[in-house]
Specification:
CATH architecture of the largest domain: 3-Layer(aba) Sandwich
Distance between the termini: 34 Å
Largest sheet: 7 strands, mixed
CATH class of the largest domain: Alpha Beta
Strand order of the largest sheet: 6-5-4-7-10-15-16
Helix content: 25-40%
Order of helices and strands: EEEHHHHHEHEHEHEEEHEEHEEEEEH
Number of helices: 11
Shape: globular
Number of domains: 2
Radius of gyration: 20 Å
């Protein structure tokens, strides 16, 4: 089984998602600047995986700090954290992972630099381990929502490649299959970065899960023909009212699902829920390079000099979301009350940045 991101003695190891499915290449990053570059350049992507990678980036950065003065160490760690936080603005897990690492330092004011370095490495490894367990719990919580002998549409990649392992949206599908249900997956290609065609199709096929690739503009017709029975997507940030930011095109899929009376499920860990973000209009939307739209694998497909827009995410209003599946349970509207209730027993885990 492939590993999306891993802590090793040699450095932070990541599977390079830019070259999938042609090659399965693992790259080793030995300092925090390299980890930040890998996040920004989408070597690693997917909100939970970005959170884990950011935690690893803080840890490896901490190990490289040479000072023995605790005050100077904390100042340098702040610089490291700021650079990692600047890489991608939409996925709240990035900031959640960095904030969790910061709390380790803040809660150990009397520790030496060596002690803090060890604590930070241990915390990053724990975040990685927890993410896999959380995804499996999301999968088991959502498995009951998918009917036996049914089909599910996914958008982008919210599988093992987008997390430390197992996946969120694909975790729900994996959970249903492990429960004995027969599920066929439709993966849309997800332009412009083709995460569905390159990544979702690759990992499901690798696991022997029945997957059919379709283009983005086929979804509505297939829904109308009764070929799609549910939609399961991941999320990069969920506002307090249930508005959900996910890969561009998710909103369109949600509208089509509503029109065709198909349930639309969002699967995400609590670390993706941002209760301080009151609604989706406040979520920052990353705009990426125009070359992702004008080129495919380096080959130009659009005229020279054409104007381009490339927002990487959109926001699906809560009214289109049938349920939000988390490791703590399944929440339905009204989401403001339900999402807050998930944190009642563990307020320290809230992504309230």
């Amino acid at each position: 089984m492939f590993k999306t991101v891993e802590w090793t003695k040699a450095g932070v190891v990541m599977i390079d998602q830019r070259v999938l499915p042609d090659k399965e290449v693992y790259r080793t990053y030995k300092d925090y600047k390299a980890v930040a570059g890998a996040i920004k350049d989408m070597v690693v992507r997917g909100a939970p995986a970005i959170g884990v990678a950011a935690a690893f980036g803080v840890a490896i950065g901490a190990l490289k700090i040479k000072t023995k003065d605790a005050k100077a160490f904390r100042k340098e760690l702040g610089i490291i954290s700021s650079l990692l936080a600047s890489t991608r603005p939409t996925a709240v897990n990035l900031f959640w992972g960095i904030e969790r690492m910061r709390r380790v330092v803040d809660s150990n004011p009397g520790s030496t630099v060596a002690q803090l370095q060890k604590l930070l490495v241990d915390e990053a490894i724990l975040i990685h381990q927890e993410d896999i367990a959380i995804c499996r719990k999301i999968g088991s919580n959502g498995a009951g929502l998918l009917k036996d002998n049914s089909t599910a549409l996914t958008h982008c990649n919210a599988g093992a490649l987008a997390t430390a392992g197992y996946g969120t949206a694909l975790g729900v599908i994996r959970g249903a299959i492990e429960a004995g249900k027969k599920i066929q997956v439709f993966a849309d290609e997800t332009r412009p970065f083709l995460q569905g065609a390159r990544l979702t199709a690759w990992e499901l096929n690798k696991d022997g899960i029945d997957v059919t690739l379709i283009t983005d503009n086929m979804a509505g017709w297939m829904m109308k023909k009764g070929l799609i029975h549910s939609v399961v997507v991941g999320a990069d940030r969920i506002a307090a009212n249930g508005d959900t930011a996910n890969k561009i095109g998710t909103y369109s899929v949600a509208v089509l699902a509503r029109e065709n009376n198909i349930p639309f499920y969002v699967a995400a860990p609590l670390s993706t829920i941002d209760l301080k973000m009151k609604h989706g209009d406040l979520i920052p939307i990353e705009e990426r390079a125009s070359s992702e739209v004008t080129h495919i694998k380096g080959k130009r497909i659009a005229p020279e000099g054409i104007k381009v827009r490339n927002p990487a995410f959109d926001v699906t209003p809560a009214k289109f979301v049938t349920a939000i599946i988390t490791e703590k349970g399944v929440v339905r509207a009204p989401y403001l009350k339900g999402l807050k209730g998930l944190f009642a027993a563990q307020p320290s885990s809230c992504s309230c940045l």
